[in-house]
Amino acid sequence: MLHEIIIAGFGGQGVLSMGQLMAHAGMMEGRHVAWIPSYGPEMRGGTANCGVTISDSPISCPVVTNPTCAIVLNNPSLVKFAPLVKPGGLLLVDGTLVDEKSERTDITAYYIPASQIADELGNARIANIVLLGAFITLTGALQPESVLAALKKVLPERRHHLIPLNEKALQAGVDYIRRVVAQC
């Protein structure tokens, strides 16, 4: 099993923390993982992305250049990273914030209203976790229990009161994608 993921959006959307969360969850499951962040000097509001690799075998190169999955939270990230996804790969898009569509027919794309779902749960900043729930459901790359346990490692202790909300967001992503897949 090898998942090479690019997560991209604006700084402040939880792109880097989502990658850290995936890497920690993978480690908890005994997998080989790599996480490499990339962001501009402006951070919040600037562009940010990270590459995450989750594998059952050692990782020879931690740099993700042709991902098996791209998770994008803004239009510039869709334009930049959708073309890099390997044929047969997966594209997950926050369909609330991204109004463009990928023209690729050799990948599977899901436009998930993650920010809308997050707003309905009471906090727009958890859209990344909604997308993570969709990702783990579609790929089986990580177990939800590992992701939730990793939240305690990734979130600073002063933010641990947000763990129940993140749990709801993860489940909302799982439930949304299950409904979509069941309709296909």
Written account of the structure:
This protein is α/β, with parallel strands linked by helices and 184 residues long. The chain has a single domain (2-183), classed as Pyruvate-ferredoxin Oxidoreductase, domain 3, CATH 3.40.920.10. The chain is 40% helix and 22% strand. It has 6 helices and 6 strands, in the order E-H-E-E-E-H-E-E-H-H-H-H. Strands 2-3-1-4-5-6 form a 6-stranded mixed β-sheet, with helices on both faces. Helix 2 (75-81) links the parallel strand 4 (69-72) and strand 5. Helix 1 crosses helix 5 (144-154). It is globular.
Give a short synopsis of this structure:
The protein contains six helices and six strands; from the N terminus they run E-H-E-E-E-H-E-E-H-H-H-H. With 184 residues, it is α/β, with parallel strands linked by helices. Strand 4 (69-72), helix 2 (75-81) and strand 5 (90-94) form a beta-alpha-beta unit.
